[in-house]
Structure formats: structure tokens, C-alpha cells
């Protein structure tokens, strides 16, 4: 069942999302060569804590970290560790926050120092695909209008969308219906309505779409070793423009 939210509930989801966006904004100045992914986790957790939120991924189905940190060929669900970032790496950081009964969820891929042009392009195209997906999140449309907008842009640029993981509704639960694949033909699936709050999250591989999960049971990596990027926002569908709740600067 898809839960529609009242305006008041959307404001409260927005409060959780503001903490997510603020944390991502702060991370942009923290990610650097020599920093470990565990230091990134601690920093993010401290920002979330300072703002009265709770890191939603900690313990979720047993996930050991407060946030997900996925480097280079790691797609999503990377576990923070003693791994030190090197110049030329790209790192995807996924942040979920629980605040006063509601969840917010967003992700960004950041470069570490100077990165190769192919990595820049991958990040740009993934961010653009998210923007196009957001623009398709309009009342009266269908869930797969988002999917096909994302897939079309990614594939037009020669990259692949990951199919193993999908976007999702969000609210009082971290993962609600509907599932929102990043692929598929337009005009399918549930009708989009004002009051839906959705976490849209294209995961894009520079090579093929295949992924494997490492022996840690969490970290998803590209099957062909190619780079991967992940951008996510929590979005509210309204009667007019879609509203991004996890904005960051
Ligand atoms: Mg998500």
C-alpha cells in the first residue's frame, strides 16, 4: 500500500530531510585525500547527532555503519572502514536520518581531489538522471515515468543503470511502497499522486549493469570492476512542481 502524506507529515519528513541535506553539505568540505571512510562516518554521525537526528542505517537489518560509504567500483552499501581515500577516488555517501517519527534519505558521489574525466562524466550524468527523474515525479503520471526518464538519460550517455537496487517510498518507514526501479518503459506502475514522498536514487555504472555483493554481506560492487555513482533525493509529489526535501549546498 502506498501511504499518502498530509501537508503536516510532509513538513515533518522535510525536517528529517533537512538534517540529511545539511550533513551532505558539510561532507562536501570534509571528503579529502587521506581521510578514511570511518572518519567520514564519524563526522556524518556527529552532524546528524548535533541536529537531534538518528542515523537510520545503523543496525538496519544488521548494517554495521551509521552511513554507507562506497568507493570507486563499490555501488552502494559500502561499510565504513580504515580505508584511506586517495586522490582520484570517487566516493558515494548514502545518509538516512530518523527524526521525530519520520525518515529522510539522500546520497551523493563526491570526487577526491582531481579525478579522471570519465569519472567526472559519470557523476554528472548520474546527477542529471536524478534531476530528470525528479522532474517526472508529477501527480497524474506513473511510477515508471521516473524510471524511464532516468534510464533514457543514462543509456544515451553510454552508461548502465543498476537493476538490483531501486528507489522507494519513504515516511514513517525508511522503505515504503512503491518500489521505483531506475529502468523500465514509461507509463507503467502505480499512479503518482500529490502526497507521495519518494526516495529517487539512480545507481549508474560506467560499464555493465551487473553487480555482486562482497563476502561482508553488504558491499555491492560492479561485476566488471567499472566505476559507479549514486545520487539520491527524497522528493514530495505536489499538485504542481515536485519538491526536493533533501536539498544541500
Ligand atoms: Mg534510499
Topology diagram in text:
Elements: H1 7-28, H2 37-50, E1 54-55, E2 68-71, E3 74-76, E4 90-99, E5 102-111, H3 117-135, H4 143-156, E6 160-161, E7 167-169, E8 176-180, E9 197-200, E10 203-205, E11 211-213, E12 220-222, E13 228-230, E14 233-236, E15 243-244
Antiparallel strand pairs: 1-4, 2-4, 3-12, 4-5, 6-10, 7-8, 7-9, 9-14, 10-13, 11-12, 14-15
Helix pairs in contact: 1-2, 3-4
The structure holds magnesium ion.
What fold name goes in the CATH topology slot?
Creatine Amidinohydrolase
Helix-strand sequence: HHEEEEEHHEEEEEEEEEE
* Discrete helix count: 4
Helix vs. strand class: alpha+beta
Classify the helix fraction into a percent range.
25-40%
Low-confidence runs:
none
Mean pLDDT: 98
Strand order of the largest sheet: 8-7-9-14-15
Task: Using the CA coordinates, give the radius of gyration.
Answer: 17 Å
Q: Strand count, sense and closure of the main sheet?
A: 5 strands, antiparallel
Cα(first) to Cα(last) distance is: 34 Å
CATH-scheme architecture: Alpha-Beta Complex
Based on DSSP secondary structure assignment, what is the total number of beta strands? 15
Superfamily at the CATH H level?
Answer: Creatinase/methionine aminopeptidase superfamily
Bound molecules: magnesium ion
Instruction: Bin the strand percentage.
Output: 15-25%
Tally of discrete structural domains = 1
Amino acid at each position: 500500500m502506498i501511504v499518502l502524506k498530509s501537508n503536516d507529515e510532509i513538513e515533518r519528513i522535510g525536517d528529517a530531510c533537512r538534517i540529511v541535506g545539511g550533513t551532505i553539505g558539510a561532507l562536501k568540505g570534509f571528503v579529502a585525500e587521506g581521510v578514511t571512510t570511518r572518519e567520514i562516518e564519524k563526522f556524518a554521525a556527529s552532524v546528524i547527532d548535533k541536529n537531534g537526528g538518528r542515523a537510520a542505517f545503523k543496525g538496519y537489518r544488521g548494517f554495521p555503519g551509521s552511513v554507507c560509504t562506497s568507493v570507486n567500483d563499490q555501488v552502494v552499501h559500502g561499510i565504513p572502514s580504515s580505508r584511506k581515500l586517495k586522490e582520484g577516488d570517487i566516493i558515494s555517501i548514502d545518509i538516512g536520518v530518523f527524526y521525530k517519527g519520520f525518515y529522510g534519505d539522500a546520497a551523493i558521489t563526491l570526487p577526491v581531489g582531481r579525478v579522471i574525466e570519465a569519472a567526472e562524466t559519470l557523476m554528472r550524468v548520474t546527477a542529471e538522471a536524478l534531476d530528470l527523474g525528479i522532474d517526472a515525479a508529477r501527480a497524474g503520471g506513473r511510477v515508471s515515468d521516473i524510471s524511464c526518464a532516468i534510464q533514457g538519460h543514462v543509456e544515451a550517455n553510454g552508461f548502465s543503470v543498476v537493476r538490483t537496487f531501486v528507489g522507494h517510498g519513504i515516511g514513517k518507514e525508511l522503505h515504503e511502497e512503491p518500489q521505483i526501479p531506475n529502468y523500465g518503459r514509461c507509463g507503467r506502475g502505480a499512479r503518482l499522486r500529490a502526497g507521495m514522498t519518494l526516495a529517487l536514487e539512480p545507481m549508474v555504472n560506467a560499464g555493465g549493469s551487473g553487480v555482486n555483493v562482497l563476502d561482508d554481506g553488504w558491499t555491492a560492487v560492479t561485476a566488471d570492476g567499472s566505476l559507479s555513482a549514486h545520487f539520491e533525493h527524497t522528493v514530495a509529489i505536489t499538485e504542481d512542481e515536485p519538491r526536493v526535501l533533501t536539498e544541500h549546498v
